[in-house]
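Q: Here's a chain of 536 amino acids. Please give me its 3D structure as tokens.
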Amino acid sequence: MSASDSPLPFRRVLIANRGEVALRILRACRELGLETVAVYSDADAHAAHVRLADAAVRIGPPAPQDSYLNIEAILAAAATTGAEAVHPGYGFLAERAAFARRVTEAGLVFVGPTPDVIEALGDKLRARRIARDAGVPVVPGTLEPAAIDRPDQLPAILDEAATIGFPLLVKANAGGGGRGMRRVARPDDLPVALLDGSREAADAFGDGRVYLEREVVPARHIEVQLLGDAAGRVIALGERDCSIQRRHQKLIEEAPAPGLVDAERRRLHDMAVAVGAAAGLRNAATAEFLRASDGAYYFLEVNTRLQVEHGITELVTGLDIVREQLYLAAGRPLSEGALAAAGHAARPGSHAIEVRISAEDPGRDFAPAPGLIRRWLMPAGPGVRVDTAAEAGERVPPEYDNLLAKLMVHGPDRASAIDRLAGALREIEIAGIQTTLPFHRFVAGHPAFQAAELSTGWVADHWDGPAAAAREGRLAQLVGGLAVAWTKTGRGDRDRKDVRDAGRGGRDDRDDGRDGSAWARAALEAAVDRWPGADE
């Protein structure tokens, strides 16, 4: 019996999260014969993860600070249900060293890196120093927090900024996602940017420390999936390109990163492993880098948790990363499958792409768009995977992240994966809320994306379609709404197909010589032109 086949030292896992990631963890636990405990707020009382878990415990009202961020309530739920391990998922408490420490102090297994590693790598400046000491290049910038509480230090800060070069970024020491970040183009703007960034960071993370970093443009954002075991071995499972993003939030990811040769991949993986090993990584983490236009790599940070986009690495490697996390948390060595995947990581044999379908309006600068999902139809078929907890009739609450689903496609090469992505996006039907689908369809068909011309400025450089997105969004809502109405009134399948084909621009030739879908689409577009807000 291999180590990975032997019984785990825990039998019941509490999942300290919600939505699709809670379901993802639940399914991995179920396949290993582990029981699961769901926690939920009042907003999620009827959610899928609550219904499917072996036990479920209410932990508070909808506000995150009163529920999914409530450490005491989560630990109490673990105690009352007899949970022996806690998986934090991503977001919420996943990268809170204090939470991981409280879990272990309660005698439970924390499924993730150790509290000390989370603490060390969660401190961005400390992580930069760890990388530098491991011989890994970091983005040029400061290695200590800016002394913004000492006005007499402003000249020294300005001198450091001049050495780094403008434009530069003010960045938060304790977090990411763009919070606390300010772009500074001129020295005169730096004092205000430091103060504003520090205030925002303090509000978001409870830590107002900020530092300076060169803005590397143009650049690609490439990350490496790491696993580490208790014996000190750290491996890289491959890299992902996450360059297409807005406001430092990822929209589309793919694995492997296109355009890299084997030697470059090995060098990148070796740098990531060096940082993880220097930090004493155990379990799963992701090392993030910027790739400059000259091919130079610069270390950004390490996320000490399961990454949202882990699924595309699973598709390329054939591994179940959540299962690997559970084995590693149990003290098992790296599995034979993980070691084999790492051995082939520099020469990947297939390609996967993920798009994040969110309740946001891409025609209004990706503004949040919560509401009631009236129709929800996801694609299926070979090489198509959808991770979601959304359902028709469910209300998307405003209190939480807007992610609805992760659509992943897998093919033998990038071109086939893009073709599969375009086809899967055409199959999706969502009504009742605005989503990022118009943007994803735009990207899948764009020549620059198809040619792998990627950078963190891709959205600003290419996405000029707010009006088109708004029009497509209104059309999609109308199509979905009419389909729902037809279903309720008992109209035939042929009529519903007319509406769907019209929304997609398909054909339905009739015996009377009219192209039914073209005719229906023209009628729908006329209605869309009269839709509220059509002239905005």
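Q: Can you summarize the key feature?
A: The chain is about 40% helix and 20% strand.
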